[in-house]
């Protein structure tokens, strides 16, 4: 057995220039995968690709808007034609949204923004890659959600509903695609402690709450959110990426239709 988890695998990462997408792409490439990075910002995609190439890995980039179904399908066809198949897909696309506004002051537009954005992107990308997966080569679709899927607190209506929708979508899609030898797994991290320094929108997302507490965003994450977990710490980009590589590998070959909880014990299911 090869020591590389993803040797000879072809992986598409949507949002590949972002914090989680980029970190995962680097680990996938280190583990032997040929990585195809897709996203809206060419500069960030190129930066990740340069890191991968410098480490001896293989990465290709494409500027793709994941909300453009035709463009996503065209890109998936091109990847499958060039590589022979798509074995792994990760949707790491982020949608900036409101957190903290209660129903009385929340507009319909802000409520729907994460629901429409996240789920539309997940549907489009999953549909595009699934037709190039499975059968004789096992396929894996990885999705990302958030603790808001299970939390019962005020001010996260759109966020929580979108997170729960992503987890439900993943579970139902797993049942539908299993006969074709395709696994679907959702990864649910907490707020990622080093995401702000990696350019994530986490910094903007938590800025209002941090300011209200008189803290910097980093202080808010480490002193406000981390103590609420069993482990008293938040996940790192590296931990999420390493878990994604394991889940995408044949070593996790019987896992599908489930949510992998990376909240440090903030949630227990």
Automatic annotation (TrEMBL):
Question: Please, which domain of life does this record's source organism belong to?
Answer: Bacteria
Q: Which UniProt keywords apply?
A: Oxidoreductase
**Gene3D superfamilies of this UniProt entry?**
NAD(P)-binding Rossmann-like Domain
Give yes or no: UniProt keyword Oxidoreductase: yes
What InterPro entries does the record tag this protein with?
NAD(P)-bd_dom_sf, SDR_fam
Q: Which GO terms describe its molecular function?
A: oxidoreductase activity
PANTHER family membership: 5-KETO-D-GLUCONATE 5-REDUCTASE, ALCOHOL DEHYDROGENASE, PUTATIVE (AFU_ORTHOLOGUE AFUA_3G03445)-RELATED
Homology family: Belongs to the short-chain dehydrogenases/reductases (SDR) family.
The molecule here is called Short-chain dehydrogenase
Q: Which organism is it from?
A: Rhizocola hellebori
């Amino acid at each position: 057995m090869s020591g590389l988890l993803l040797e000879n695998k072809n992986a598409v990462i949507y949002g590949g220039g972002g914090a989680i997408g980029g970190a995962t792409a680097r680990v996938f490439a280190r583990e032997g995968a040929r990585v195809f990075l897709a996203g809206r910002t060419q500069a960030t995609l190129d930066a990740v690709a340069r890191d991968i190439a410098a480490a001896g890995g293989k990465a290709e980039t494409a500027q793709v808007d994941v909300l453009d179904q035709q463009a996503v399908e065209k890109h998936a066809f091109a990847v499958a034609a060039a590589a022979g198949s798509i074995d792994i897909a990760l949707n790491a696309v982020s949608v900036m949204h409101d957190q903290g506004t209660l129903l009385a002051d929340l507009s319909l537009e802000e409520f729907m923004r994460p629901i429409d954005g996240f789920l539309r992107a997940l549907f489009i990308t999953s549909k595009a890659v699934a037709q190039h997966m499975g059968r004789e080569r096992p396929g894996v679709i990885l999705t990302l959600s958030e603790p808001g899927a299970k939390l019962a607190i005020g001010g996260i209506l759109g966020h929580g509903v979108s997170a729960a929708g992503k987890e439900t979508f993943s579970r139902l899609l797993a049942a539908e695609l299993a006969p074709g030898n395709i696994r679907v797994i959702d990864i649910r991290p907490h707020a990622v402690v080093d995401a702000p320094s990696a350019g994530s929108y986490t910094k903007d997302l938590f800025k209002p709450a941090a300011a209200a507490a008189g803290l910097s965003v980093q202080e808010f994450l480490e002193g406000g959110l981390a103590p609420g977990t069993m482990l008293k710490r938040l996940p790192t980009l590296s931990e999420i990426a390493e878990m994604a590589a394991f889940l995408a590998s044949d070593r996790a070959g019987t896992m599908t239709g489930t949510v992998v909880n990376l909240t440090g014990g903030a949630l227990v299911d």
